[in-house]
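User: Could you write out the 3D structure of this protein bound to coenzyme A? I've included everything you need below.
Assistant: Certainly. Input first, then the structure.
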Amino acid sequence: MSAAQLPPWPPAPPRWGSVLLRQVQEKDVPMAQEMSADAYIPQIGSLPPHADHRQAREWVQRQQTRHEQGIGFSFTIADAGSDEPVGHCGLWLKEISAGRGSAGYAIRPSARGRGLAAEALLALTSFGWDIPLLHRIELYIEPWNTGSIRTAEQAGYAREGVLRSHQEIGGVRRDMLLFAAVRP
Ligand SMILES: CC(C)(COP(=O)(O)OP(=O)(O)OC[C@H]1O[C@@H](n2cnc3c(N)ncnc32)[C@H](O)[C@@H]1OP(=O)(O)O)[C@@H](O)C(=O)NCCC(=O)NCCS
């Protein structure tokens, strides 16, 4: 889809509980570096493992082009009070013409254990329903990833099944659980 067809950036940051979703900014580079040291995050996105400052900055810059490229909305999850970055999430809309999108999320290791991913996913999903064309948001989660499964459940997503050998992660074909939310 061309960039012109993507809905505009939300005029106010989507919020839920203690988080808001805003543009990825230069000041998020240290968070990107912290997330790049996580064992799993570099396997499921474009952040290189143990990124140096330049690589983390390039990741930030890539996120800043996702909307204009028509790929979707790439958000920093920030503390609603301090604006400090606590993670990243995206609403990916390459299939918006079919009424579908997918979402992904990660919390920086030092901010985990407070249910922030579920709050971010609730904010992201609520924002998604502001997009008239969007009827269904999908999540693809590895069966071992209990933290992500709980996040999906807490945000109201329903488990729909197992997609066997769905994609390659870390050089290995992986089964993925399909979770989805549909427009209320
Ligand atoms: C998944 C992730 C986003 C969750 O972050 P978070 O919001 O800080 O999650 P929390 O630590 O608050 O845990 C949320 C729930 O999962 C449970 N959980 C978290 N890690 C768990 C684990 N390793 N084993 C079992 N349960 C776990 C918690 O107990 C909590 O459940 P509860 O609310 O029923 O008590 C975070 O772990 C992360 O960034 N992981 C790497 C990236 C990733 O996997 N992204 C998702 C790809 S599909």
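The domain at 3-138 is CATH 3.40.630.30 (Aminopeptidase).
User: Perfect, thank you.
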